[in-house]
Every structure is written in structure tokens, then in C-alpha cells.
Amino acid sequence: MSELKKPATRPANPRFSSGPCAKYPTFDLNNLASAPLGRSHRAAVGKSKLKAAIEGTRDILGVPEDYRIGIVPASDTGAVEMTLWSLLGARKVEMLAWESFGAGWVTDVVKQLKLDAEVKTADYGRIVDLTTIDTDNDVVFTWNGTTAGVKVPNGDWINDDRAGLTICDATSAAFAQELPWDKLDVVTFSWQKVLGGEAAHGMLVLSPRAVERLESYTPPWPLPKLFRMTKNGKLNESIFEGATINTPSMLAVEDYLYALDWARSVDGLKGLIARADANAKAVDDFVQIHDWIANLADDIVTQSNTSVCLKFTDPRISDGVSFAKAIAKRLEVEGVAFDIGAYRDAPPGLRIWCGGTVEVSDVQALMPWIEWAFEAEIAALTEAA
């Protein structure tokens, strides 16, 4: 093992975690000095910052003007939970799951809300057959499976004249993939993913159809304060103008505003997608010339450009879990990659975040280190035998 030569180049930023994700390249704590700390978020300065966060999100993502955008508590999870508990129950529900978070939404709907939902699942690395989905039902799904490295290729399967609502968890897709807003009625995401913002705040986007459901349907179960989006039978518009349901971190808001500014500096959504695509391609180029590693997503059309999941395929590996953990540990000890082990419920392997805040030079520098770690662990297996 001492004969294995380490690569000469190291990633300048070894942070490849899939959440919280790498900060935007120009991040500087000194930028946050203008945050209105110690001030009420309901003061004029707080409201203006929150409103700027909402409108900046609309501008970069191209969210239609008649869609509401709100900042909500508990990150993407909070945004999804608010949606499930407030909107479901009016129509039949189809739950689509191909990774752990989608499976979590199934648990909420079937075991907690106790709805008689039709559940459609696929193994890690695949998605369900979208041609079988009836969008006259309410449909809940993740656009990009963070823990499985798969994405929905497009919204063509969603009918324009659908009767149901499409509820999309897009937390690792927003700011990295095109979202067809006319096909989506609810979209949720968090600041901590593609823009590298701070955790604990979620974004909730509602179409006019979703608003109509909120105002015409009252679920049969009680709603806690954090989930309530209506007042006297009408949408509480203040939530979508910057008056958050609970107290937000103005420091995190300031950071998000700078992340949005950085996004504008790289040509907005177009630039962010290009950066993520380039990062994912750097990984794929490596995978294509090595026969001991492969993308977990077996269809190139559904391969994610953000949470890229890899599996080891070498037949000499008998314990995939231990082998993958040893690779991740070796890379962490060397200081070249942090937090790239596969999600605990996913097949063993690696998960490399390739969103737009990551520099392609860092991804390219990481790849030889993965080969070095692989060869070192194979050598250790041979010695042990």
C-alpha cells in the first residue's frame, strides 16, 4: 500500500456533501455584516429582506407571477409537510417514491394521514413508469431523488387539463434543473441545497390551482399553527409577501440574498444548470473509463446532475457496505472529500454533490483520488486474504 502514489492535485474545496451543500464560491462571512440582527423580522428592514428573497427566487427560477412563493419553517421537510396536511384528502392520491425521502412522504400520507393512497415505487437508481400516472388524481413525487441520484426527465407525463394537483419536492432540483411550472401546482425546496444556503428554511411555491384547493377544501384533521396557510377561508397572503409563520433567521436570509446575487453573476438559472451539468459530466467521464465503478442510475435520461450516486462493481468486493465506507473514510482522512458516503438507506457506494456552487476543477481533482482510494482498499482486501 505504501507503493501507491497519491495524486498531485487536491480539490481546493473538499466539500461534496449533498446537504448542507458547499457554499457559493464567493461566500465570505463579512458579507453578512449587513444582516439586521437583533431586529424584528416584522420591522420594515426585515420585511424588505424577506420580500427580496421571495422576488429574487421568482426572478432566477422564472416562477410565474400568479404563483405564490412563501418562506416557511423546517426546511424542505416543513414545506412538504405543510402541503400534505393542508391539501390532500380532497381527491384520490398517487404517491411516487424511488428513494428515501419519497418513501418518507408515503409514510406520512398512508400511516399518519391514513389516506387510501395508490403507492408506486421503484428501486434505487430507477424511477417509476410515468406513463402509468393519472394526473386527474393528486400526485406527490420528488423531482430529483437526492439519495438515489435519479431525476424526472421532464413534465410531459402531466396533463395540462389535469383535475388533480401535482405536488413536487424539488429540493435538489431547484436552481439546477428546468422545472415546468405550468405542470406543477406545488413546488418545495430549501436554501441549503443547490445555492449552498443555510439550513432550516424552506420555500413553498403554490400555483393558482393549489390556492383554489386551499380556499375550497378543509381537511378533516386538525392543523397545527405552523401548517395553516388560510385565514377565514382565504389564503393568508401575508405569508407569501414575507410575513413568515414563525421567526426566521435574518442571518440565514442575508446569506440567501448573497447566494441569489452570486447566481445572477453566473448567468442565473442557465448558468447554474451549466455548472451542474459540467460537474456531473466530470464524474461521468471518469466512470466511463473505469470498469469497477458505475452510476447508480442505470438510465442516462434519469441521471441526476446534482446528487450523483455511484456504486462499486468490482467482483472482488464481497462486503459492499464496508468497502464503500472505507473509501469515504480514506478520502476524508486525506482531506480531499468530506461527506460523500451513500445515504444510509441507499445501496452502498458514494454520493458526490455536483450542484452549481461546486467548481468543476474540484470535481476533476477528486476523481484520481477516488481511484487511489479504490486501489488502496483493493490492495488491503488482497493482503487480508
What does this structure look like?
- The chain is of the alpha/beta class and 385 residues long.
- It has a seven-stranded mixed sheet, sandwiched between helices. Strands 12-13-14 form a three-stranded antiparallel sheet.
- The two termini are 15 Å apart.
- It has eight helices and 14 strands.
Keywords:
alpha/beta, 385 residues, 15% strand, three-stranded antiparallel sheet, 14 strands, 34% helix, seven-stranded mixed sheet
Task: Specify Rg, calculated over alpha carbons.
Answer: 22 Å
- The shape, in one word, is globular
What is the structural class? alpha/beta
Major sheet:
7 strands, mixed
The termini sit apart by: 15 Å
Strand content: 5-15%
Number of strands: 14
Low-confidence stretches: none
SSE string, helices as H and strands as E: HEHEHEEEEEEEHEEHHEEHEH
The percent range for helix content is 25-40%
Mean pLDDT: 97
Separate helix tally: 8
Q: Identify the strand order in the major beta sheet.
A: 1-9-8-7-4-2-3
What's the layout of helices and strands?
Layout: H1 44-61, E1 68-73, H2 75-87, E2 93-97, H3 100-112, E3 118-121, E4 138-142, E5 144-145, E6 150-151, E7 166-169, E8 186-190, E9 201-206, H4 208-216, E10 230-231, E11 234-235, H5 250-265, H6 268-288, E12 293-295, E13 307-312, H7 320-333, E14 350-353, H8 360-384
Helix pairs in contact: 1-5, 5-6, 6-8, 7-8
